[in-house]
Amino acid sequence: MSANPPTNRRWWTLAVLALTQLVVVLDATIVTIALPQAQQELGLSDLERQWVITAYVLVFGALLLLGGRIADYWGRKRAFMVGMIGFGLASAFGGLAQNGTELIVARGLQGLFAALLAPAALALLTVTFASGRDRNTAFAVFGIIGGTGAAVGLLLGGVLTEFTSWRWCLLVNVIFVILGMIGGAFFLTESKAEGDNRYDVWGTITVALGLGSLVYGFSLAEEGWGSINTIGFLALGVGLLALFVLIESRVAQPLLPLRVILHRVRGGAFLIQAIVGSVLIGATLYLTFHFQIVLGMTPLVAGLANVAMTVVILVAVPILTKQLPAIGPRLLMIVGPLLAAAGLVYLSFITPGGNYFVEVLPGLVLLGIGLAGLFVPLQNLALTGVAPHDAGAASATVNAATQIGGSIGLSVFTAIYAQAAEESAASGISQFAAFTDGYSAVFIASAITMIAASLLAVFLIRGKKSELLPQGDQAAPHLG
């Protein structure tokens, strides 16, 4: 069964699904600005504070593939509605948490239901907008939400923390969930994969444990890359993921059909998506720390300081979307990361007493333009030509790439920051100067990853424009 609603209904469907994407993405960052207040009120240790963020993105990323298959087999609208309800309940639990353990568990439960909700939403978008110009517009809107959601989370978190309480950074999700459930009930059309559908139990276990071990291993890197725990968990994660690939190549109903990721274009898009996730979740966190800790901004002002990048993305995406049929996605995928890298390099020159408008704003503008160039074609490339039977799995892979990339990026950037700040502090400079050196190191590392994304696009995003960007009313050709 395939969703094929009338044109007007399709745009209402897009509005509901875009709201879902916003909730899922902003929840990775909305608590960032609130963490100092939550840590003080609940008596969190520094390790518990880190896991308030990590618990969400780790569970989310590790279970997305299973969530995608559940959406395919059980019904995408049904999975969407159940995910919404569970996400709202988990958010309410977190907002009422009385200690660190309850808050971390609540964040993990949010990630669990987001892993069901997000791929269902993206799969519904894929089957609702099968091809043509409307598909490009729909994915551009979805890309804007995905790209700006992190910044919106920082801004909203600042507003709620300053004028209410950190608890409302979680409780506000209940409002979004109610709106999403009402819209979903009226405008979403059920669809599911046809045929004999079986769950890949062993694939689910190996990929969840593998990704979890990998991310946890990277989170331990701050102790030292050579520590036995870091090496052990990283090695275990790699081994389990290798076993997962072996299982997927042999089972009849794989959790992730290898045809989804082994095609050069789609595989390249997934890798680039992971890099973008690492920058959005990892690098923006340290920019926020610079605003509050070094520059002394209040939570609200720190949130507003991030808006520049969001505004640039919102302005640039519609312009680039109109130009996409003429210039094609490949050029944007190559140039976009380079512009983003230039913005990150500019940010690396921040100083403890620097002016925001001189040292930060130009870098955010460049970063926003570069990210907009990626958001316009990226998700479309990752899903173009995927068979309807695999829509949920492919959608889950897109989201998993972002979350796992963000988890790994946050862990790696934390280790880089800690080492750079420690070395600077040992030289006798002031504490704020040492912090700033650590943030600068993170921005340089982020710039290097974006350059790597551009190189991946050069070698992997290839093909005729009709294959990379299907037009008209014909179904998108299968690339794999």
Automatic annotation (TrEMBL):
Membrane topology summary: Multi-pass membrane protein
The keyword Flavoprotein is annotated on this UniProt entry: no
Domain (Major facilitator superfamily (MFS) profile) ranges: 13-465
Transmembrane segments: 12-38, 50-67, 79-97, 109-130, 137-159, 165-189, 201-221, 227-247, 268-287, 293-319, 331-350, 356-376, 397-418, 438-461
Subcellular location: Cell membrane
Any Pfam family matching the protein: MFS_1
Keywords: Cell membrane, Membrane, Transmembrane, Transmembrane helix, Transport
One Gene Ontology cellular component: plasma membrane
InterPro entries assigned: MFS, MFS_dom, MFS_trans_sf, Sugar_transporter_CS
Molecular function per GO: transmembrane transporter activity
Protein name, entry field: MFS transporter
Organism: Glaciihabitans arcticus
Lineage: Bacteria, Bacillati, Actinomycetota, Actinomycetes, Micrococcales
